[in-house]
Amino acid sequence: MAVVIDRSKCIYCGACVATCPYLALRLKETYVEVIPEKCTECQLCIKACPVGCISLPGKDNESKR
Amino acid sequence: MEKYDLPLIKNEYDIVIVGAGPAGSLAAREASKRGASVLMIDRRKELGAPVRCGEGLGLKHVTNMGIKLSPQAISANINGARVIAPNLKDDIIIKTPETKGFVLDRKVFDKDLAKDAGRAGAEIAVKCEAYDVIKEGSAVKGIKYIFNGKKGEVKAKVVIAADGAESVIARLAGMRDATSTLYDTDYGFEYEMVNVKLQDNGQDYSDLIEIFFGREWAPRGYNWIFPKGPDSANVGVGIGGLEAPNAIHYLHKWMSADGVKHRFAKAVPVAYKGGAIPVGAPVKEFVMDGFMVVGTAAHQVDPIHGGGIGLAMNAGRIAGTVAAECVKDGKTNAPALNKYKEQWYNEEWKKFSKRLMLRKVLEKLSDDDLNHIISNLDQKDIDLTLAGDFKPVVQKVLLKRPQLLKVLTVLVNL
Ligand SMILES: Cc1cc2nc3c(=O)[nH]c(=O)nc-3n(C[C@H](O)[C@H](O)[C@H](O)COP(=O)(O)OP(=O)(O)OC[C@H]3O[C@@H](n4cnc5c(N)ncnc54)[C@H](O)[C@@H]3O)c2cc1C
Ligand code: SF4
Ligand code: SF4
Question: With a 6 A CB cut-off, is B54 part of the ligand 1 pocket?
Fold first, then answer.
């Protein structure tokens, strides 16, 4: 499993990319690519995201907005 | 007739720079001026866009870098700063030569800097993303890129990573501490808005940047209104990474608070901007064999206000100069390139280290402390503080919270 990014809400600011210690995220020009095999589900990116558009399916971590 | 085609990326350059923000463009300009062959690449199809910045820049940075701002690069001229207490009522207004500056339009500004680099002789490739670093042993030898859909490799005597907060290139090269940690990073979100009231309390604030402190509004950070014109502004927030839920939540909370909400009653966004702002110490090493990291990629950001444009430009200027000299001398290993780090520390560390400490102190202050300080400071105190004498401020805080003595002693001894 890996995090899922709601592309319709993402502002491609790169904050999650900066924070992921495993380089499991890469900023493309207008979206973020998730590299599932690198994601450890540490959820740091979820805490970093300024707009709350990252989630881990099956976990109750949908942002509180 | 000859057909136009995009200039090709050659197989080898003296210096390859990843990222055409303020850090990359200054590095490219300075290195090109000194005769090095330079390629600067950027993932973006349009340099400067999308903006992820409050766009505030002090005049001194512009002067020091020898930049001529085009009128289009300036959204507003700034004469000072207004700092508002957590009670959203008490304030201090600071106007000194240090607080003179601009709110920029970075879409124009960043592109102008890149054009200057191009004029100095640098080759530029936009829509060109570096996706890997080529290493031989401990040395960086080049990068792998994808340019307009085509993959390629380019060798360089020096690779300069100027890729901003993501700092993927330095991490691929092996600098683990270029990852942003929740503890040492602020996460920001802002709207550029029209119909913002830049007048309040019967006063005109359209030539001031406004900074609002308060745990309730921006834990471990602050809210801001940076004017972009007579009725427009960047309205934003930065919060510490350990704070939940997220930046936009706090921005909306603050914009709805009594004391400020009337200023946004008719405001509507014309842009969303956001991003990570590393506000801790810079990365430990600035160089490796054949490699340098500059600007926000190296966490060279002001620990108090999170401004990174000025520091990025200066680091780029130093790194570009050193890289070109090292290429000329035929020595681009880490000890040779480290002259950049030495020079950076010479120029920036005295102030930077003070501000790191000041950040720690600010974090210890409660909203009550801040209300107390801001409502009690007079112009004389402010002038002294700005001149580096924190004693009057410290005394005023101590009246209220004697237990802060230990923390505040640090300040007085700076
Ligand atoms: C919300 C917010 C508000 C801010 N407000 C202010 C402010 O008011 N004043 C201030 O001084 N600073 C502010 N900052 C900080 C400021 O934006 C940065 O410090 C500054 O942009 C750093 O410049 P740089 O050249 O190091 O990196 P950047 O400006 O981030 O440039 C990096 C460039 O590298 C490119 N890039 C990245 N990865 C790759 C790759 N793999 N391949 C090719 N290209 C790549 C990017 O597209 C980008 O163009 C703010 C930041 C945020 C997030
Ligand atoms: S932090 Fe959130 S908004 Fe920013 S790029 Fe990542 S997912 Fe998108
Ligand atoms: S959950 Fe952790 S490993 Fe996975 S993308 Fe987010 S930060 Fe990276």
Answer: yes
